[in-house]
Design a protein that fits this description.
The complex is a heterodimer. By secondary structure, chain A is mainly alpha-helical. In chain A, about 70% of the residues lie in helices and about 5% in strands. The termini of chain A are far apart. The chains are: A mainly alpha, B alpha/beta.
Chain lengths: ~270, ~280
């Protein structure tokens, strides 16, 4: 049952977007997010949406996958909308009932906040849908590598992330096994009050914890046997290389940011 | 020829142990040979293996790898590069979530040039027959396949010795066969020295030399043909004999003139055929 959980949600593919350097994609996602926060007009949102739609189309990601990814956000979106709708001041009253009042300004703000959140989250989804977690880790390591001069253990951090990703499926499998074992001995994990169910999780978590420590110990030993001695003097098999596509992507990103600013200036 | 690993009067006591886990072990391992180490639980066989690549350092005596003393910290990486080690649980030795990235881990640690790493990774995966799985996620592979990836990860260091600490203990019969075939090929065709720690008599029967450990000492040492017929001595050390040997010994006891040293099922069948004619 736990195996159904998808993590990282990477959809392998072989499109221009998939082939872009992960560093480019990471930086462009940041540009896109910055552009979203600079939007000052409806035209700006339209431009950002057009950019998002174009990338989605080029990378052959099904729009349905994006919508599915947005589902867990319903609560936060509704919450933001309600908050902005009812608690924005203004004289231009649209609707009043007892102590509740809605202004035009409030409505505008609520709608623009919702659009902003949806565009922001779908944009970051596009990054994880088209880039494997490992490639993102790799890109982060290389983008942060100037920090090595400040003695930030960049390589070690990225290795930790990589190992964590590597062990997620292994630990899920193990949890499944422990759950079956506890159920076979009469543990009841599914009924009862919240407190009872939380208590029932304890015999699941303790063995999982203990075995994780044992795993960590063995992994450390195996890594030492394979000459691991920190990030110093390490080389990499896969070298990241920027190609002309990356330059083109950066140009498009810059155009998006400039377009958003221009539309804001023009007030469209 | 000089031994690749020379162990002289090695003793080792674990920090929390009262009794030494190894008590005066001396042995030489010659390059290109296949040695199996047998022994019941707690006989010191894993402890012995961990001394061969400086994971544990001797409390007394010496371990020399290719002439280098393991106690000298300056030799550490050079020793670990020469002596690769594979453990029991394949899940806990794989670092990366793509097979080829995992195999690249050791040469990356050693600072090898990227193009050379690529070459070594491909060669190592070819050798263990896992090349077509190079882009797979390790957790989707079978136990035997994972263990072969772990072996490839060590081979990418270009080691001279491969020490395997019960590599088949967690595998199904098919996985066991895969791993054992790979190990044998590496020894016979690539000339890699193999030290195989195992519980399985039929695995040990394929080696050139069998060491039987008991209470931190080497109790028996010789070719499998010489060791296995000594069923009483093995039973005294809480070990069994391979099925083939057991059969031949019973036939001999019943008065049939068969040699007790035929170990593989084929040799055993041939020996019985010969006696029946």
């Amino acid at each position: 049952m736990l195996k159904d959980i998808t993590l990282g949600q990477y959809f392998p593919g072989d499109t221009v977007v998939h082939r872009l350097d992960p560093r480019t994609k990471l930086l462009l996602t940041l540009v896109y997010i910055a552009a979203l926060f600079m939007v000052g007009s409806w035209g700006g949102y339209a431009l950002c949406f057009a950019a998002l739609a174009a990338v989605t189309a080029v990378s052959h990601i099904k729009p349905r996958a994006l919508v599915k990814g947005l589902k867990p956000l319903v609560f936060i979106v509704v919450f933001t909308a309600v908050l902005n709708l009812f608690f924005t001041g203004g004289d231009d009253i649209l609707f009043r009932w007892k102590f509740i009042r809605v202004t035009w300004a409030g409505l505008e703000r609520a709608v623009s906040m919702v659009i902003r959140i949806l565009l922001l989250v779908s944009g970051t989804f596009l990054l994880t849908y088209t880039t494997s977690p490992l490639a993102i880790t790799d890109a982060l390591e290389r983008l942060l590598s100037p920090l090595k001069k400040l003695h930030v253990p960049v390589y070690e951090l990225s290795l930790m992330m990589c190992i964590a990703l590597r062990f997620i499926p292994t630990l899920i499998e193990e949890t499944d096994r422990i759950m079956s074992a506890q159920k076979a001995r009469g543990a009841d994990l599914e009924t009862g009050s919240l407190v009872e169910r939380a208590k029932a999780l304890l015999p699941l978590l303790i063995p999982l914890f203990v075995s994780s420590f044992r795993r960590a110990d063995e992994l450390a030993l195996a890594m030492e046997c394979r000459c691991y001695n920190g990030g110093e003097g390490r080389t990499r098999m896969k070298q990241l290389r920027m190609a002309w596509q990356d330059a083109a992507a950066f140009a498009l990103g810059a155009a998006l940011a400039a377009g958003v600013l221009l539309l804001r200036r023009l007030g469209i | 020829m000089d031994p690749i690993i020379r162990i002289k009067n090695l003793t080792y006591t674990y920090p929390d142990g009262s009794r030494p886990a190894l008590d005066g072990v001396s042995l030489d391992i010659m390059p290109g040979t296949f040695t199996a180490v047998l022994g019941s639980n707690g006989s010191g066989k894993s402890t012995l293996a961990k001394h061969m690549n400086a994971i544990l350092l001797p409390s007394g005596g010496k371990v020399l790898v290719d002439g280098m003393d393991t106690i000298d910290e300056g030799n550490l990486l050079a020793i670990r590069r020469r002596v690769g080690m594979v453990f029991q649980n394949p899940d806990n030795q794989i670092v990366a979530n793509v097979v080829e990235d995992d195999v690249a881990f050791a040469p990356e640690n050693l600072g090898v040039e990227p193009a050379e790493i690529r070459r070594r990774v491909d060669a190592a995966l070819e050798q263990v027959g896992m090349y077509q799985f190079r882009l797979h996620a390790p957790h989707l592979l079978s136990g035997g396949q994972k263990q072969r990836v772990a072996i490839a990860g060590v081979l990418a260091m270009d080691p001279e010795v491969l020490v395997l600490d019960e590599p088949t203990a967690m595998l199904d019969p098919r996985g066991r066969r895969e791993v054992l075939r790979t190990v044998e090929e590496l020894c016979r065709e690539r000339g890699i020295t193999v030290v195989l720690i195992t519980h399985h008599m039929d695995e040990a029967a394929r080696a050139d030399r069998v060491l039987v450990m008991d209470a931190g000492r080497v109790a028996l040492d010789g070719a499998p043909r010489e060791i296995f017929p000594r069923a009483d001595a093995l039973r005294a050390l809480r070990l069994t004999v391979p099925d083939t040997t057991a059969l031949l010994l019973r036939l001999r006891a019943a008065g049939m003139p068969v040699p007790a040293g035929a170990l593989t099922p084929e040799d055993c069948a041939a020996a019985i055929w010969e006696a029946l004619r």
